[in-house]
Amino acid sequence: MSIERAEYTADTWPIATCLHGFQPVDENGLALHDAPPEVWDAMLAEVEGVGFSLIELADSHIRPADLEPSRREEFLAIAQSHGIGVPSVHLQRRSVIMPGHEESNLDYAHRTIDAAAEWGMEVFSTGLHQPFSPAQRRALWFWTAQGPRDPDDPEVWRQAVSRIRELGRHAADLGLRMALELYEDTYLGTADSAVRFVKEVGLDNVGLNPDVANLIRLHRPVEDWRELYAKTLPYANYWHVKNYTRDEAADGSWATSVPSTMEAGLIDYRRVFKDAVALGFDGIILCEQYGGDSLGVCATNQRYIRTLLPRGRAIAAEDRSEGMP
Question: Where does the chain have alpha helices with state H?
Fold first, then answer.
């Protein structure tokens, strides 16, 4: 399936925020997914207040596949009242090759794709990462502890490719892009492996979410961010962006990282955005941030990103918040 491509300017490019700044479960144990409308309204008012008109729904916060139609319409009505569109869903830590959960996770992904279409979304984003290990749950920053690893097993690789292709075909049938997120120790954990994987899936609507920051934050030797982007940007159709400061020993014996604004971190996004635009990237950009005032930093990053994008009149630009639920 060929997905229609559009050209945007700095003013019209669709930039969304994550909801990391909002607790998925409150102090009384109530999940955001099950929260009353006034909680959703307060959250989306904050999003509107910092200047965002688009959000990504990560299933860590709200699960579109498990929301009753009446609740879905309630959420969308509240979002619309704040001028906020919901163009994408990110399904995380539900790997389709997770031992003992392969079939249930595959079914959940299919249901999420159906829900994304029902919500009027454009992108289904996912990956092969699994739930945090006990060590990751105890750590200040989860990326400083070891998580699950995809096995070096050709048969499991083939199963992963086959199941992702199945999901990609489903997404294509419903007019959705599908994006696969770079993530350490998965088959999408290095540039070469991620490119090989998406090529083997072999569908026009399935591309990469080149979240290179997921890799440069690791406290161990990592690929150079320039090489990571050079190899993965040609396959990008959706993009999580964030940044970290990083320091490391020349002999690779130690490394450390801390979340930063996009402008202040290791990755030179001014250079990366020039490359992305030159390669024809036209996907939604999703601002992420861990720690501190996540929403505030995402707002700062959105303003920075718009200084990096092309100016002038777009050929086929549109405001994705207009007419969206």
Answer: 37-49, 69-81, 102-118, 134-138, 154-173, 191-201, 213-216, 225-232, 269-278, 294-308
